[in-house]
Specification:
Layout (H helix, E strand, L loop, with lengths): L6 H10 L42 H5 L9 E5 L4 E9 L9 E4 L2 E2 L6 E10 L2 E10 L8 E9 L2 E4 L3 E6 L3 E4 L4 E3 L5 E8 L6 E6 L2 E2 L4 E2 L2 E5 L6 E9 L2 E4 L3 E5 L7 E8 L4 E6 L10 E8 L10 E7 L4 E4 L7 E9 L10 E5 L15 E2 L2
Parallel strand pairs: 1-9, 11-19
Antiparallel strand pairs: 2-6, 3-4, 3-7, 5-6, 7-8, 7-9, 10-12, 12-16, 13-14, 13-15, 13-17, 17-18, 17-19, 20-21, 21-24, 22-23, 22-25, 25-26, 26-27
Organism: Notothenia coriiceps (black rockcod)
Pfam families: fn3, ig, Ig_3
Protein name: Tyrosine-protein kinase Mer-like
């Protein structure tokens, strides 16, 4: 007896009784804070993954997809709360996209100050996404252009910008700088501060006291010349109040301080290696030092010639060549900046050694006025 095959009706039975599996959609980390998930749907279960193709919107649906109009700009003072949102309708409830916020083109992430909440509802097969940003105690750094972004079917949709403008006291973007100046020579200082709100006006202070009228920012301030240490600063005013800059220290260039720690670090039969420590530079770079070398006289009243060796610095050491073997010498050093030379140090004494020997240990050198 032949048996009747049943693949047709058995396959139809399996298709009609496909097992439905309900799955939760993953939520990206940056939107996990405060997100309200949509209720699990039981009337339209998702099929087992792999048995249905991905959901795509039609070209016409994609053309009509856009974020709803929202507020274009917000002005508020520092310390207040800023709250703004964007929303969009998705015409297919099977899609589960997430809104991404960007600020000035960079992804905005939630933190203690910035909280992102997302609400998702479904009505008649249309899913509405509403994303809200709350910034607690806004600061100047929160100013900028905010947008929502959404990716569907490999296309990215972007909302119109929401511009946040945070008003407060003037903010300095350039403050007066320390200067080292030549006595009685004129110089110029500059200062710049910005709002919002604008305009910002600048007033200059000399040693803490007003020294000018008000000028629009940025401001340059010409000083005819000073002959002693002094400080300048500037005040920036707008409708919110006043901000004071740092104080710029104005130093007068003077002669360098005396050289110290003159030491013969190596002795040979025909030269020394000499090192020293410069004094204060007098608010002008030390560029040269002068070594004075004089042979110690062997007879009372004998006048010995002083030889000068110019050294470009740094570093503050130099060879002293052209010496006689087994002879005592006086040495002193002074250093110069653009103003002039430091005081000449007292003589120190050291002696060369016999030929063919080098001594690197620094000898004890006694100062002498000879």
């Amino acid at each position: 007896m032949a048996h009747m095959s049943t693949p047709g009706w058995f396959g139809a039975f399996l298709s009609a009784t496909t097992i439905a599996i309900i799955v939760g959609s993953p939520v990206s980390d940056q939107h996990s804070r405060g997100r309200i998930h949509r209720p699990i749907r039981t009337s339209e279960p998702l099929l087992v993954p792999g048995r249905v193709s991905r959901v795509y919107l039609t070209p016409d649906q994609l053309r009509r997809l856009h974020f709803k109009p929202t507020i274009g700009s917000i002005q508020l003072s520092e310390g207040h709360e800023a709250k703004f949102n964007c929303s969009i309708d998705i015409p297919d409830a099977r899609l589960d996209p997430a809104i991404l916020w960007v600020k000035n083109g960079q992804e905005l992430e939630g933190n203690v100050q910035v909280v992102i909440n997302e609400l998702q509802t479904t009505t008649d097969g249309v899913t509405t996404l509403l994303s809200t940003v709350s910034i607690v105690h806004v600061q100047r750094a929160d100013s900028g252009e905010y947008r929502c972004r959404l990716s569907i079917n490999s296309r990215t949709f972007q909302s119109q910008p929401i511009t946040i403008e945070v008003e407060g006291l003037p903010t300095f973007i350039h403050q007066p700088e320390d200067r080292n100046v030549t006595r009685s020579k004129s110089f110029t200082l500059s200062c710049e501060a910005v709002g919002p709100p604008d305009p910002v006006q600048i007033r200059w202070l000399r040693d803490g006291l007003p020294d000018s009228d008000f000028h629009n920012s940025p401001s340059s301030y010409s000083v005819s010349g000073v002959d002693k240490y002094i400080q300048f600063s500037c005040e920036a005013y707008n409708s919110k109040g006043v901000t004071t800059s740092r104080e710029a220290n104005i130093n007068i260039k003077v002669l360098p301080g005396p050289v110290s720690n003159i030491t013969v670090t190596e002795r040979q039969s025909n030269k020394f290696l000499l090192s020293w420590s410069p004094g204060h530079d007098g608010f002008s770079p030390i560029t040269t030092c002068l070594i004075r070398v004089r042979e110690v006289s062997r007879r009372k009243g004998e006048v010995m010639t002083i030889r000068f060796i110019n050294v470009t610095v740094p570093s503050f050491q130099s060879e002293v060549p052209g010496l006689k073997a087994m002879t005592w010498y006086n040495l002193s050093v002074s250093c110069s900046n653009e103003v002039g030379g430091s005081p000449v140090t007292m003589w120190i004494q050291s002696n060369t050694i016999e030929g063919g020997v080098a001594i690197s240990l620094s000898p004890k050198c006694d100062s002498t006025d000879e």
